[in-house]
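INFO  loader      accepted 1 record
INFO  loader      residues=119
INFO  predictor   begin
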Amino acid sequence: MFPAEHQLHTGVYSLIIVAKVYAPGYNSQNLRTITVDVPNVFELVKTSSEGIDSDIYIDTSTLLDKLPEGQTYIPDVEDIYVRQGWVSNDNGDVINLNRTDDSTIQVNLDSITGWYEGD
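INFO  predictor   done
INFO  writer      dumping tokens
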């Protein structure tokens, strides 16, 4: 976000992206913080006539995954997630979730009330 009230000074601006991503086994919270500094992304000018209205492209091919000196990241578990889901009405309302480890989880919806079915 770069709201208008923060756009006080003309000049060239950089972009810093800070992302927390899920990384099983990385630390006790399974969260990894990644910071990317992209210099000279755009420039604020005094008048509209000085500006150039064009798209901004950020080249991510030069970004490397670097860890602090002496650290390695080897996940102790493989990430498991749902790759497909479907609703089955054969045995009542059931949601079937097919996971990447080839198991299927069934979620029984019989006890849930207040469903709304729209047009």
